[in-house]
């Protein structure tokens, strides 16, 4: 059960082309946004689609796979953990960001 403490599983589409950063150590980092959709009917019977956007990051071999094979708009399934961090922007204001750090990636849909 300890593996369930901080676990996120999502299926969605990439909202942008992954940004790949190569660090001085040679380790790669991939960053992208991912959209998940939930549909429901409102009181009038109209279908409503609610889109949620998620900040996704991946390191190492997973980042290399993303760099080579994953593009904007494609559907993927990810499993990872939820992380939060803060930083000070250029005006000195504290900003908070929540990201999902990917442990596993599955590319969905065929060519």
Compressed to H and E, one letter per element, the order equals EEEEHEE
Tell how many strands the DSSP assignment holds. Answer: 6
CATH superfamily: Nucleic acid-binding proteins
CATH topology term: OB fold (Dihydrolipoamide Acetyltransferase, E2P)
Helix content: under 10%
Number of helices: 1
The dominant shape is globular
Radius of gyration: 16 Å
Give the distance, in angstroms, between the N- and C-terminal Cα atoms. Answer: 37 Å
* CATH architectural grouping: Beta Barrel
Structural class: mainly beta
How many separate domains?
A: 1
Which residue ranges are poorly predicted, with pLDDT under 50 across at least 5 consecutive positions?
A: none
Biggest sheet features: 5 strands, mixed, barrel
CATH class type: Mainly Beta
Strand order of the largest sheet: 1-3-4-6-5
What amount of the residues lies in strands? over 45%
Q: What is the overall pLDDT average?
A: 93
Walkthrough of the structure:
The chain is mainly beta. Strands 1-3-4-6-5 form a five-stranded mixed β-barrel. 9% of the residues lie in helices and 59% in strands. It has one domain (2-41, 48-107): OB fold (Dihydrolipoamide Acetyltransferase, E2P) (Beta Barrel), CATH 2.40.50. It has one helix and six strands; from the N terminus they run E-E-E-E-H-E-E. The termini are far apart. The longest helix is centred in the middle third of the chain and has 10 residues, at 60-69.
């Amino acid at each position: 059960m300890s593996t369930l403490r901080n676990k996120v599983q999502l299926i969605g589409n990439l909202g942008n082309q992954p940004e790949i950063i190569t660090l001085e150590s040679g380790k790669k980092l991939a960053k992208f946004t991912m959209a998940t959709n939930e549909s429901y009917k409102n009181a009038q019977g109209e279908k409503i689609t609610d889109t949620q956007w998620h900040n996704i990051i991946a390191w190492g071999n997973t980042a290399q796979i993303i760099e080579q094979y994953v593009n904007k708009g494609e559907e993927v399934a990810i499993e990872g953990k939820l992380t939060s961090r803060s930083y000070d922007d250029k005006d000195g204001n504290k900003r908070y960001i929540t990201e999902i750090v990917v442990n596993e990636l599955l590319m969905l849909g065929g060519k």
